[in-house]
Amino acid sequence: MKRILIDGYNLAMAKGTGIATYARNLCEEVSGLGHEVSVLYGERIAEDDDPLLREISFFDPIELPKGRLRRVARAIRSGARSPFDLTPRELDLSGSVVPNAFAGRFPTCKRIFNGEDLFHRANAGFAIGRGFSKVYMPGTVDLAHWTYPLPIEVKGAPNIYTMHDLVPLRLPYTTLDNKRAYLKLVRQIASRADHIVTVSECSKRDIMELLDVPEDRVTNTYQSVALPEDALKFSDEEVARIVEGGFDVGYKDYFLFWGSIEPKKNLHRMIEGYLASGVETPLVIVGARAWRSEEELRLVKDSGKHGKSRIIQLSYCPQGTLINLIRGAKAALFPSLYEGFGLPALEAMTLGTPVIGSNTGSLPEVIGDAGLQVDPYHSKAIAQAFSQMDSDSGLRNELTVRGATRAELFSPSAHRKRLDALYGRLL
User: Fold this and answer.
1) How confident is the model over 362-411, as pLDDT tens digits?
2) 352 to each of 129, 329, 333, how far by Cα in Å?
3) Across all residues in the chain, what is the average pLDDT?
4) Max alpha carbon distance in the chain (Å)?
5) φ/ψ bin of 117: left (φ > 0), alpha (ψ from -120 to 50), beta (otherwise)
6) Which of 44, 45, 128, 410 has the smallest number of CB atoms closer than 10 Å to its CB?
7) How far is CA 401 from CA 217, 223, 240, 327, 374, in A?
8) CATH architecture of 3-224+412-426
9) Average pLDDT over residues 247-270
10) Are strands 311-314 and 218-220 parallel, antiparallel or unpaired?
11) What CATH code would you report for 229-408?
C-alpha cells in the first residue's frame, strides 16, 4: 500500500466540473488498487484549533471577498505572505456535520487535508513570478497526483500532473484564459513534472507537439465514469414518469445536451442544425451560462418569437435528475469543437442513449462506431444527423447496443488497470 495525495481543487466546486468527476473517479480507482488516498483542499476555513469549528467551516467555507486574489498577490509581492512552505493541516471529520448534501461529490479517501487559500495563493504567487508553491505534507506521501495544471508541488515525493487538453492553445478563441500565463504554466509543468498524465491520444499528441514532451514522459490513461448506484435505482417506467411529469417531454422523445454554455461546446451550430432539420422532437439543453452564452443561445430566443419553442432550457440539474434525463433521451448531443476526452459521450453510452458527436479532437476515440460523428463546423451535417437519428429507430437500437460495448473499453476496471501500470512505473 502506498500513500497517494490527490488535489481537491475542482472537488470543492459546488456544481462540479468534468475535472471534478475525473478527480472523484481517480480517488475511487486508486483506493480500489489498495492505496491510501488523501485529498488536499485549499478552502478558506476557520483558523482555529477547535476541531468542530474547522469541520463546520470545511462544509461551509468563508466566502472570499471580491478582489481577494489581487490582495493575496500584493501581499506575496510585498513579502507579507509567501506562497512557499505551506503546511496543510489534517481535518478530523467526526460526523458532527451531516454530510448527506455532499454525498454525490465527496471523494473516496482515507484522510483529508486543507491548506488555507492554498490554490489562490499558489496561483497568485506564480502570476507575479514567484514560481511554484511547495507543500510540506505531515507524514509520508509516496506520490502526489494533481488533477489540473497547478503551480504546486509536494516536497519529498514524485509529482505527476493530469493535463486533460490544451484547448487554450489549440483553440485560443474559445476560452478566456490568459494565454501567455497559461502557456508559461504548462511549459513549466512539462519541464519539471515527474510525469504527465492525459486522457486521450489526441491530447497526448498535443502535449508532445506543443510542449515538446518526450513520449516516455506522458501517459494516456483515458478515464472512466462511475455512476452512483442510488442514481440508477429507477426502472425505465419510473424514468418515463419522472421526465414526463417533471419536464413535460416524452420518454425517448427528446434530444439532450448538457454542459457549459460556451463557444467550445458549439451550441449555436447545434441549435442551427436542429432548427434546420425540421424535426418536431424537442431539444433539451442543460447547462450554466458561461462566456459568450448569449451569442451561443441567440437562436433559442429567436425561435420562440413566433410561437411555442421546441427548445427547453435548464440552467442546472442535480446528478440524479440529469442521469434520468440522459436515460430518457432519444439521443445525446455533443458537437463540441474540441475536447480532451468527452465524458458526456461516455456517460450517454453507459446509460444506453445513442450519441451524436463531433469528428474532431478526442471524440472519435470515445465514440468510435457507436455514434453518429459529424463535422462540428457544418450545421447542415448536424441537421442531417438530427433527422437520421430522429426517424430511424433501427439505427438508434443498433447504436445503443454498440454504445454499451464501446463503454466497456472505458470502464472503471479498465481505468484502474491503466493507473496501476502507470503508478507501478513511478513508485
Assistant:
1) 999 999 999 999 999 999 999 999 999 999 999 999 999 999 999 999 99
2) 49, 9, 14
3) 88
4) 67
5) left
6) 128
7) 37, 21, 20, 14, 20
8) 3-Layer(aba) Sandwich (3.40)
9) 92
10) unpaired
11) 3.40.50.2000
Closest alpha carbon to 296 in 317, 273, 265: 265
User: Do the domains spanning 3-224+412-426 and 229-408 agree at the CATH topology level?
Assistant: yes
Angle between helices 18-32 and 412-426 (to 10 degrees): 70
Do residues 281 and 254 touch, judged by C-beta distance below 8 A?
yes
Pairwise CA distance, residues 270 & 255, whole Å: 11
pLDDT of residue 240: 96
pTM value surpassing 0.85: yes
The C-alpha cell at 405 is: 460495448
Q: Distance between alpha carbon 135 and the CA centroid of its chain, in Å?
A: 25
For the chain, the structural domain boundaries read 3-224+412-426, 229-408
Distance CA 37, CA 50 (A): 25
What Å distances lie between residue 181 and 123, 153, 184, 203, 247, CA to CA? Answer: 10, 18, 5, 20, 43
Torsion of CA 15, 18, 23, 29, to 10 degrees: 120
Q: What share of the chain is helix, strand, coil (3-state, %, to 5)?
A: 45, 15, 40
383 SS3 class: helix
The amino acid occupying position 183 is L
Residue 160 has, within 13 A of its CA and on its CB side, a CA count of 24
Please tell me the predicted confidence (pLDDT) of residue 54.
Answer: 82
Q: 89-91 and 195-198: which strand pairing?
A: unpaired
Tell me which of 68-77, 125-134, 199-208, 274-283 is least confident: 68-77
Give the per-residue pLDDT at 400.
97
Q: Cell digits for 406? A: 464501446
Q: What distance lies between CA 252 and its chain's CA centroid?
A: 26
Spell 216-230 as b/e; 16+ CB within 10 A means b.
Answer: eebbbbbbbbbeeee
Candidates 218, 202, 170; CA nearest to 367 is 202
Q: Compute the distance between CA of residue 108 and CA of residue 94 in angstroms, rounded to an integer.
A: 16
DSSP letter string over 142-192?
SEEEESS--SEEETTS-EEEE----HHHHSGGG--S-HHHHHHHHHHHHHH
